[in-house]
Amino acid sequence: MACWNPNIEMMSKEDLDILQLKLLKELVDRAYDRSPLYRERMDEKGVKPDDIMTLDDLSKLPFMSKKDLRDYQPERLFMAGKRDIIRYHASSGTTGKPTIVGYTKKDIETWSESLARALTSAGLGADDIVQVANTYGLFTGGLGFHYAAEKIGAAVVPASTGNTDRQLQMINDLGVTVMAATPSYMIYVGEVAEKMGIDLRKSTLKTGLLGGEPWSDKMRERIQSQFGVRGINCFGASELYGPSWTECDEQCGIHIWRDIAIFEIIDPKTGDKASPGERGELVITMLQKEAFPIIRYRMGDITVMDEEKCACGRSHPRMMRISGRVDDMLIIRGINVFPSQVEHCLHTNPEVGNEFQIVVDRKGALDDMLVKVELKPEAFTDNILELNALRERITSRLKNSLNVGAKVELVPTGSLPRFEGKARRVMDRRDI
Ligand SMILES: [Zn+2]
């Protein structure tokens, strides 16, 4: 399999440890010297750059939040002066005020390098024609894919979003092989093609670089089987470099280059490091950043890391699918429970329909969780014995998956409340 930078990508775990520690120390020195905000945070915590002697010492450093990036930029946050910044982007915050992000020349190079490795690992190269259907502009998606695709020698079609008829025309006229887009736009393109009588499976388009919004393996299966487009999961954010990581050809998690970033998983409640293989909040440290520091930056996303060597031969860790946001987390008898975990577990049972509801109550001092599950019409039966057996099976699967017991109630299709927009699946009655 092709490799963009074999020296780094195929480096042994031990050598990567050494390289990563060197880069971490340099980063902390740089931030302490040049970012007034981060120096203040370190001083408050009583930690000095010299305290970072091993990779585990990372946990001594203070966290950063999205609020830090929004409130203190650029004067107190940035490590580089205006003269060294060569590009600005901005992300639209949900609170209204955009977060400005800046990049030095080297930041742009590191970003392209990271994504060039990723695209090569996904099997792309100079023979490809990449149509970038992400937004170009203050949002980083468009230019991110653009630079990396050019770097690996692929041809770029900077289509940006919208005008789907024209997107399809160009796929046909130019022989486009790759489309970078959000997964939902990829599906939309496929649906428009079907309406126009175009069978994408017979087109030159073979790969979708998909990200920028939460999506599931179910959506991937649909994109792959219905449109014949291999869906490669991508990750990044404008305050990191975004997009900058993707899955390799094995499609089993997103490779995170250890010389570029450290992805930690923490318990969002205590801030402590999660056990290996445990789901928790993603915390990111960007090792080579020059313009502004991203050190122990709390993303608010819930995921899990796989540290095992990948079948492709790379020993860099892989991030699994993001399964939710910290804000959605419930604490049941001291155990963190995510509605997405419940959903995932329920869908391993073929009898279960699309709707469910979690009701949390407090009986005496104990939390009590009830999961109401809609069955598919053909699965619901009057046979109490059969229904009880199914309920017991789902109850025990939930207990194994969540590490905390829940009562399960099976209900017929259509009996749970439907909500406009995002499903409100949790009813927490403990505060009432
Ligand atoms: Zn791999």
What is the secondary structure topology, with strand pairs?
Elements: H1 6-9, H2 13-34, H3 36-45, H4 66-72, E1 85-91, E2 99-104, H5 105-121, E3 129-132, H6 141-151, E4 155-157, H7 164-174, E5 178-181, H8 183-195, E6 207-210, H9 217-227, E7 230-235, E8 245-246, E9 254-255, E10 261-266, E11 280-286, E12 297-303, E13 305-306, E14 318-319, E15 324-325, E16 330-332, E17 335-337, H10 339-346, E18 352-363, E19 366-375, H11 384-402, E20 407-411, E21 426-428
Parallel strand pairs: 3-4, 3-5, 5-6, 6-7, 18-21, 19-20
Antiparallel strand pairs: 1-2, 7-8, 9-14, 10-11, 11-12, 12-15, 13-14, 16-17, 18-19
Helix pairs in contact: 2-3, 5-6, 8-9, 10-11
Residues 248, 250, 255, 310, 312, 314 line the site of zinc ion.
What does this structure look like?
- The chain has helices at about 5-10, 15-35, 35-45, 65-70, 105-120, 140-150, 165-175, 185-195, 215-225, 340-345, 385-400, and strands spanning about 85-90, 100-105, 130, 155, 180, 205-210, 230-235, 245, 255, 260-265, 280-285, 295-305, 305, 320, 325, 330, 335, 350-365, 365-375, 405-410, 425-430.
- The protein is an alpha/beta fold and about 425 residues long.
- It folds into 2 domains: about 1-325, Rossmann fold, CATH 3.40.50.12780; about 330-430, GMP Synthetase, Chain A, domain 3.
- The chain has a 6-stranded mixed β-sheet, with helices on both faces. Strands 10-11-12-15 form a 4-stranded antiparallel β-sheet, with no helix packed on it.
- Helix 5 (about 105-120) crosses helix 6.
- The radius of gyration is 23 Å and the shape is globular.
- The mean pLDDT is about 90.
- It binds zinc ion (ZN).
- Zinc ion binds next to loops.
